[in-house]
Specification:
Blueprint lengths: L1 E5 L4 H12 L3 E6 L6 H5 L3 E4 L5 H8 L4 E4 L10 H19 L6 E5 L10 E4 L12 H20 L3 E6 L1 E3 L6 H10 L16 E3 H13 L7 E4 L7 H11 L11 H17 L10 H8 L2 E3 L2 H7 L7 H15 L2
Parallel strand pairs: 1-2, 1-4, 2-3, 4-5, 5-7, 6-11, 7-10, 8-9
């Protein structure tokens, strides 16, 4: 099988590229001229230098591939929705247009559980309609990206599968866990409401990789969306304290009322928008979802239709993750 992986210089895409090579697959990737491609070169991937917004390059990239795993995305807690839409929707449309008429086996679109309404979730499954409008640009653009993917499936028969992973963690992640470590060092982590006992929608990177290959192998997955987590209850406190303990940092103790945390977050965001801030304020609703909301999502559909059974349990996954972070500490 010949795989094209977008975002292969990033955390998720890089791990998927490695897993493909271990399985004997041929890997092709698109990388910006300034991106570090040493990992891709080391595993023998073919790297096309350029930008996802270049239709000619994209047409060249999709030629003769069997599977596309689209991981590339603009991430972030803050910023105009147009900036997220430019990458997460407009570049995706270029890819989908280039796929018309090609005999693809699968187009795996990496979405997010962030597409669901920002509220408490208790076993939410894929039958829940997605909101028309989100508060943040990233989540809004990911909803629009899913709508676009399914339109191309219905109109042009592109064999798409949408995966909605939760909070992805593991070795080589330079985003959320790294930010959490920084905030733990600064003493800025709090547990608003329920003393940190609400669910966190974790998924370890190797569990996610298993789901990707299952989505490629299972014909009934075409045209479907799947929630993905580690399949076990992990509270916010359990995850955060595991990180704090591994890095020899104090465990958070402050537990402000939920209503107070919501008001403070609203005020910080409001002030930041009024002054046209380009950087995310310390308290924002993307972080609020992570730290305050109960994020429990059903993965029964993935279990039944994909045969997805998370192999790596939390204790082993967090140990492996934090061993990597400690190895990177100066």
């Amino acid at each position: 099988m010949r795989y094209l992986i977008t975002g292969a210089t990033g955390f998720v895409g890089g791990h998927i590229a490695e897993a493909c090579v271990r399985r004997g697959q041929t890997v092709r990737a698109i990388a910006r001229p300034t991106s570090d491609v040493s990992l891709l070169e080391e595993i023998g991937a073919t790297v096309l230098r350029g930008d996802l917004s270049d239709p000619q390059l994209v047409r060249q990239a999709v030629e003769d591939v069997d599977v596309i795993v689209h991981c590339a995305a603009k991430l972030g807690e803050w910023g105009p929705v147009e900036e997220f839409r430019e990458v997460n929707v407009d570049c995706l449309r270029i890819f989908l247009d280039a796929c018309k008429g090609h005999a693809l086996t699968r187009f795996i679109h990496m979405s997010s559980l962030g597409v669901y309404t920002a509220r408490h979730h208790f076993g939410t499954d894929e039958t829940e309609p997605l909101p028309i409008r989100h508060r943040d640009g990233y989540s809004q653009s990911k909803v629009e990206a899913e709508q676009l993917v399914f339109r191309y499936y219905h109109d042009f028969g592109i064999p798409v599968v949408v995966l909605r992973p939760g909070f992805i963690y593991g070795p080589r992640d330079h985003a959320v866990v790294a930010d959490l470590i920084k905030n733990l060092r600064a003493g800025r982590v709090r547990y608003p409401g329920a003393r940190g006992q609400r669910a966190l929608n974790t998924i370890f990177i190797r569990n996610l990789i298993d789901a990707v290959f299952l989505a490629v192998d299972r014909e009934q997955a075409v045209g479907q969306a799947y929630n993905l987590t580690d399949g076990e209850f992990v509270s916010k406190r359990r995850f955060i304290e595991a990180v704090a303990d591994a890095m020899d940092l104090p465990r958070p103790t402050r537990t402000p009322p939920y209503w107070l945390g919501w008001i403070v977050t609203w005020l910080w965001e409001k002030c930041a928008r009024l002054r046209g801030a380009r950087q995310a304020p310390q308290f924002n609703f993307t972080r609020w979802k992570f730290i305050a909301l109960n994020l429990d999502f059903s993965i029964e559909k993935a279990k039944l239709e994909l045969g997805y059974l998370p192999r790596v349990r939390f204790e082993d996954a967090i140990h492996e993750t934090m061993a990597w972070y400690k190895s990177q500490a100066p």
